[in-house]
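Sequence in, structure out.
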Amino acid sequence: MVQGTEGYRFRNWANTYSCQPELYFEPVSVEELQQILDLAKQRSKRVKIVGCGHSPSDIVCTDDYLIRLNHLNKLIKVDKEKQQVTVEAGMVLSDLNEELASLGLALSNIGAVSNVSVAGVIGTGTHNTGIKHGILATQVVSLTLMTAAGEVLECSDSVNHEIFQAARLHLGALGVILTVTIQCMPAFHIQLQQFPKTLTEVLNELDIHLKQTEYFRFIWFPHTDKTTVFYGDHTDKPIKTTSNWLWDYAIGYYLLELLLWISTFLPCLLPWVTRFFYWLVYSAKVTQVKRSDKAFNFECLFKQHVSDWAVPIEKTGVVLGQLSEWLDRNPDVRVHFPVEVRFVRADEILLSPCYKQDSCFINIIMYRPYGKEVPREKYWAMYEEIMRRNGGRPHWAKANSCVRKDFENMYPAFKNFCSIREKLDPSGMFLNNFLEKAFF
């Protein structure tokens, strides 16, 4: 019988949420996983699956059983003709990137970090940017799911279609994802271009930017009108990176964290810190060529609180305008840079923030310099209010104040997902506090 570990404490990457489960497991086979679920059923325990713990929320926290699938991390099958790969759910995306590179393949789009598990990536609706591209789960063509009853379901567009559209953003609420088959493409390089614009210029030219480049995003520096625009496009050019001594030697990280920490005592300094780092790092025009996954990934700097909502794409300028105006009217509120703005294609995944609408994700952060908490409640509350009034839907991996009634109003297919969840997990084995708030 597989043995669990007592006394294990889980902490997410940002050290903003933690829990101490009664037992912690790392099964090495599907059979051991089945034994754990059977044990949980016998003892009326709940079960949560954790990936790499990168989500800045309590989505995986539990007092009962916590399972990490880090040993179920193999590449199972490669279909070179279809350019598809099947992997175990616990495979980390950084490892998959290397496996694909050795096969001459790549994912068409990935998020900002690769230290995340494959099942975790699809479980929370991870996205990147590019209006021709959906959330990362739209690249999943099939998966297998172990239910609370121990049944293993094959799910795809042609088999268990409704469950498939639920499981591609599953929240850990439907069962345990075992394997995932992903659509790939031939390996490619991306040419990255970075250049400065004012916020007004970017918003006035938004349609042009969206059409002009495949992977378009921009970052806005609050308390200023400054933005940095990023273009990304497929290229046959060889890899060419630009060295920046400030970041290469980590001087920039140390300096930024120090200045942000000092600003916790003197909040009036924050706009000046923002302007300084914009001038130092983000105001220059830069062109680089990178392997695709290296181009998609970027440094998250250090520990932070994050909130990320999607709004209909036509609301982009309205939302940023309202947020900027509110900050101008409330000089006592000082916020960190940057606000990241990305664009994602509509899809049919039941709980996707992009369900049946092209969307703009507006991501705000507050850093925790040296682990110190910085006031953010007033900023967070107004941000959520602005997003709600403009048809926003929250990113499932990020903390928010929504409850079931909110989700029912925001997500047209929410009740459908709830029905599927109740059918697959009638006893609530895979629930926790996070999911109870969402579903009850």
